[in-house]
Write a structure and sequence with these properties.
The chain is an alpha/beta fold and about 290 residues long. Helices cover about 40% and strands about 20% of the residues. Its EC number is 2.5.1.47.
Length: about 290
């Protein structure tokens, strides 16, 4: 067994103390149980493994990727093990825990001005790939991202709910999770509703994006999302704190945002089984004011 054998098969936990409509059950899929601490372990593993298998990269090559945090940690963990060098570019308002975790796994980290957002980090990664000989996995356009969720996350949800899932709720960042899970669940039952979560205008929620048109992930297909629920920064913060204090689930703000969206859906239903993604663990946000 290697560390990669521990990726996936994360547990579903019933939301039992936060009130929901009678007849509706909400389950949290705890992706923080992955070895790198987030849902991004899945995509990161598949992107590097598949690139090596296809011969797109070889051991010893230099890779570069822009990240808001979780993908970077996952790539850092996996890259050195697989024999490639990883350079990660991210906004400088990322929590110190994230930066230190990436460096601990052996990655180089380049911080960019926070006011230029991750969109600038992406531009810099593309420039380094074009001009300095780096290979960019490009999680925003890489089909290996969503394919891993089609192969693992979707089947796990279907199996663990015994095919009873009626709604799937996910934050939308690179959109790999929601694209892959949507493909799989819709093949099992086309009536399952796929719900995406994005921030309200002006809200900043790490892990959930409202992309400008030119930076919209190329793997995103709007037709695969039945509905989008906007969540404010305040709502996401409150629900993240309630996840910790009432359910014992310490997670990041994107997970609180997904729960807020799940509760919006639940309040409209008489019966249903809702699964939402808890993207990561909250211990990588303890230096921020999220739990202040």
């Amino acid at each position: 067994m290697t560390i990669f054998d521990l990726i996936g098969n994360t547990p579903l936990v019933k939301i039992s103390r936060i009130p929901v409509s009678k007849g509706v059950t909400i389950y949290a899929k705890l992706e923080g149980q992955n070895p790198g601490g987030s849902v991004k372990d899945r995509a990161a593993y598949n992107m590097i493994k598949s690139a090596l298998e296809r011969g797109n990269i070889s051991k010893g090559d230099r890779l570069v990727e822009a990240t808001s945090g979780n993908t970077g940690i996952a790539l850092a963990m996996i890259a050195r093990f697989m024999g490639v060098h990883m350079t990660l570019i991210m906004p400088d308002n990322s929590t110190p825990e994230r930066v230190k975790a990436m460096k601990a796994y052996g990655a180089e980290v380049i911080l960019t001005p926070a006011d230029k957002t991750i969109e600038y980090s992406r531009e810099l990664a593309e420039k380094m790939a074009d001009e300095e000989g780096y290979f960019m996995l490009n999680q925003f356009a890489n089909e290996d991202n969503y394919r891993m969720h089609y192969a693992t996350t979707g089947p796990e949800i279907w199996k663990d709910t015994q095919g009873k899932v009626t709604h799937f709720v996910s934050a939308m960042g690179t959109t790999g999770t929601i694209m892959g899970v949507s493909r799989y669940l819709k093949e099992q039952n086309s009536n399952i509703q796929i719900v995406g979560t994005q921030p309200t205008e002006g809200s900043s929620i790490p892990g959930i994006r409202r992309w400008s048109p030119e930076f919209l992930p190329k793997i995103f297909e709007p037709k695969r999302v039945d509905r989008t629920v906007d969540v404010s920064e305040a709502e996401a913060t409150v629900m993240t704190r309630r996840l910790a204090t009432e359910e014992g689930i310490l997670a990041g703000m994107s997970s609180g945002g997904a729960l807020a969206a799940a509760l919006t859906i639940a309040n409209e239903l008489k019966n249903g089984v809702i699964v939402f993604i808890v993207c990561d663990r909250g211990d990588r946000y303890l230096s921020s004011d999220l739990f202040a």
